[in-house]
Each structure stands twice: as structure tokens, then as C-alpha cells.
């Protein structure tokens, strides 16, 4: 404890890590936390807060794992980027939301913070458009920064929206400020995804959504921007959208505009697969585009490029291409997958032999019943 206090007065590299290490050893002289020492450290942390030393208090709360204390120390420190990184790195989204609310208009939204949030959205798979949660929090922070530095923030807005997942929005009513960010982004892929989220409500669009796409259409016509007009017409005039897209090439910023076009989606897939060094994102999106268009053969080929032979086998099976499905399952070493293909082929004898080899009693009994039923039906047909 004394050593930690001594180091606090010095300028040392990795100072915080060394203090936390010493505090940790103080709290756990053996393998468990000493409750008496924890109480002493907690009282010291509270005292430091009262004395206006939130940074020193934060280290003690971190060592204790006291989230309430950590939150209070961050609020006193006004260290906005550090606080939000701490909470979001640990999945503590509600704490991050409360922090932003408590800091109010005084919060500092730096370019570094928004870059960090963009990186998380690119690296993680659970960032999706919603009226709440970390994606909404990020959009709120971007909106604040757009007011202060629009030119510097616009690339970050486009980057974030391009990596945001858009699921069906059936019961969620997005606020006007979120629609305004999409409008300011002018990002075709993001606008295509936004339209896709309302696809099943096309005949009964919420007023805010219809008003947004009508505004987008007017803006596109004023500027003579055919690509932007196609974005607006996805929900308002699907045939008009298709007519425009027939004349446009697919590229990095607009390929998702083609994704839901039954006659044109191959343009997007071909673009994504045209590079020499295919990225995981390109392969993932190409497989997704094939799937939503029921192109199971195409999806299977892309999954093979990704190296996911089990998924490729599944898609070949959906495409009723049994030969390719068997090949993929065999190469993947997925013996149960092979058995399922034989069942779909109605080769129950072959499936039965595989299940027997695997000693899967339940599957053996299930397939044996199918085999007996099949033989019985063939026998009845022979009578005729």
C-alpha cells in the first residue's frame, strides 16, 4: 500500500499498471481478497474523491472492482473517452449511456473516440441499428461531433454506417436525428440497408420513414444524382430503382443497393469476388447476398472460398446438389452431415450404415423406421 502511494508521486512509464499491480497484491495477500484491507482501501478511495483527487480514487476503485466508485470517479475526472472505452470494452452499455446522459452538453467527443467506436463496429458482429444500445449511443455521439466539426466527422459517420447491421425494424420508430445522419452521410450502402430494414413495411411505411425517403428523392432529383435517387426509390418505386441500377456499375460504396434486386444481385456478388485478395467482409457479404436471393449454389461456392466446408455442404444440400454436398461434408470430416445428405437422397440404407458406425442409437432407430416405411411403400407399388 505504501509502495503504491510512493509511486503515485513519481513520473514513471506504465505507472497506472504498476500501481494497480501493487494494490492487487495488497488486497490479495493470498489467493482471495482480504475484506479488512478492502474496507481500508474503499475508505481511502472515498476520501480521495472528497479531496478532489478522482484519478487516485479511480485506481483504488479499479483494484476493488467497485463499478459505482469507478463511475463516480470518471464523472469527476471528466475523462470522457477513457470512461466510454472502459464501459464499452466490458459490454457495460447502460453505464456508458448513463455516463453520456450525466455529462450532458459538456461531454467531449473526440475524433479518436469515434475512430475507436468505428473500429469496434468493424471488429464485432453485434452492432445493429436500434433505438437504444451502443449503436444508438454512437450515433448520438457522432451527431454531437457533426455540429462541431462536420467535415472531419463525415468520413467517420460514413464508415460507421457502412459497418452497421440493419435488421428488420417492425416496432421501432427511429428519431428524426438518426434519419438526418443517414441523409448527411449520402452513403449508398447504408441507405440501401436502411431501406432493407423497412422492406416488409413497404405498403404501410411509418410516416417518418416515408417522409425521409421522399426527402431523399427530392434531394437526388435536385442534384441530378442517379445513384442517390436509386437509394430513395427502393421503397417508393422498386421498379424505378431497378431501371436505374441496370445502368450503374457495382462498387465498394453501392454494392448493397443491388443486393435485394433479384435480376441484378449478381452484379454485387461479382464485384465482391473480383479482387485478388478477398477480404473476410467481401466473402461474408457475397454469401449473404446469395442467401437472401435463394441462390444456394452461389452461397455454397462463396462459403468454400471462405473455407467453411460445413456451411458450403449445407447450402449445396439446400440447392439439392447432393454430390457437391457430400464432397464438402467429406472434406470437412463431417460424418453426420454425410448421413443427412443420404437421408435427403432417400438412400436410407446408406444413412443407416453411417449412423450405425457412429453408434447414434436414436438416429439409427429413426432412419431404420424410414427404411422400413420406404420398403413397404415400394412393395405396395410393385403390387400394381
Largest sheet: none
Shape: flat
The span between the termini is 93 Å
Mean pLDDT across the residues is 91
- Helical content stands at over 70%
Helix and strand run: HHHHHHHHHHHHHHHHHHHHHHH
Q: Structural class, please? A: mainly alpha
Low-confidence stretches: none
Calculate Rg over CA atoms.
29 Å
Give the amount of beta strand, in percent: under 5%
Beta strand count: 0
Count of helical regions: 23
Keywords:
mainly alpha; 72% helix; 384 residues; flat
Can you put this structure into words, describing what you see?
By secondary structure, the protein is mainly alpha-helical. It has a domain at 1-77. It contains 23 helices and no strands. α8 (111-123) runs antiparallel to α9 (134-148) and α17 packs antiparallel against α18. The N and C termini lie far apart (93 Å). The mean pLDDT is 91.
Amino acid at each position: 500500500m505504501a509502495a503504491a502511494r510512493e509511486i503515485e508521486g513519481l513520473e514513471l512509464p506504465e505507472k497506472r499498471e504498476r500501481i494497480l499491480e501493487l494494490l492487487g497484491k495488497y488486497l490479495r495477500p493470498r489467493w482471495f481478497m482480504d475484506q479488512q484491507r478492502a474496507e481500508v482501501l474503499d475508505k481511502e478511495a472515498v476520501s480521495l474523491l472528497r479531496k478532489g483527487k478522482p484519478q487516485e480514487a479511480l485506481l483504488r476503485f479499479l483494484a476493488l472492482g467497485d463499478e459505482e466508485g469507478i463511475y463516480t470517479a470518471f464523472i469527476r475526472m471528466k475523462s470522457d473517452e477513457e470512461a466510454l472505452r472502459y464501459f464499452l470494452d466490458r459490454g457495460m452499455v447502460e453505464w456508458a449511456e448513463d455516463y453520456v446522459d450525466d455529462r450532458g452538453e459538456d461531454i467531449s467527443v473526440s475524433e479518436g473516440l469515434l475512430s475507436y467506436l468505428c473500429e469496434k463496429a468493424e471488429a464485432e458482429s453485434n452492432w445493429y441499428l436500434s433505438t437504444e444500445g451502443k449503436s444508438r449511443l454512437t450515433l448520438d455521439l457522432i451527431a454531437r461531433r457533426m455540429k462541431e466539426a462536420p467535415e472531419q466527422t463525415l468520413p467517420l459517420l460514413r464508415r460507421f454506417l457502412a459497418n452497421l447491421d440493419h435488421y428488420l425494424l417492425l416496432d421501432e420508430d427511429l428519431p428524426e436525428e438518426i434519419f438526418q445522419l443517414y441523409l448527411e452521410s449520402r452513403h449508398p450502402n447504408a441507405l440501401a440497408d436502411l431501406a432493407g430494414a423497412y422492406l416488409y413495411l413497404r405498403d404501410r411505411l411509418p410516416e417518418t420513414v416515408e417522409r425521409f425517403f421522399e426527402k431523399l428523392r427530392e434531394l437526388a432529383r435536385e442534384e441530378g444524382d442517379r445513384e442517390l435517387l436509386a437509394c430513395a426509390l427502393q421503397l417508393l418505386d422498386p421498379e424505378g430503382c431497378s431501371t436505374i441500377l441496370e445502368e450503374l456499375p457495382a462498387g465498394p460504396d453501392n454494392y448493397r443497393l443491388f443486393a435485394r434486386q433479384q435480376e441484378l444481385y449478381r452484379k454485387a456478388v461479382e464485384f465482391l469476388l473480383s479482387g485478388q485478395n478477398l477480404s473476410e467482409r467481401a466473402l461474408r457479404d457475397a454469401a449473404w447476398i446469395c442467401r437472401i436471393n435463394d441462390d444456394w449454389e452461389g452461397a455454397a461456392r462463396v462459403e468454400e472460398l471462405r473455407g467453411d466446408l460445413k456451411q458450403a455442404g449445407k447450402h449445396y444440400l439446400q440447392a439439392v446438389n447432393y454430390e457437391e454436398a457430400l464432397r464438402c461434408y467429406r472434406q470437412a470430416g463431417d460424418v453426420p452431415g454425410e448421413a443427412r445428405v443420404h437421408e435427403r437422397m432417400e438412400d436410407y440404407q446408406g444413412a443407416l450404415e453411417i449412423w450405425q458406425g457412429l453408434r447414434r442409437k436414436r438416429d439409427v432407430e429413426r432412419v431404420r423406421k424410414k427404411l422400413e416405411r420406404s420398403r413397404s411403400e415400394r412393395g405396395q407399388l410393385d403390387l400394381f
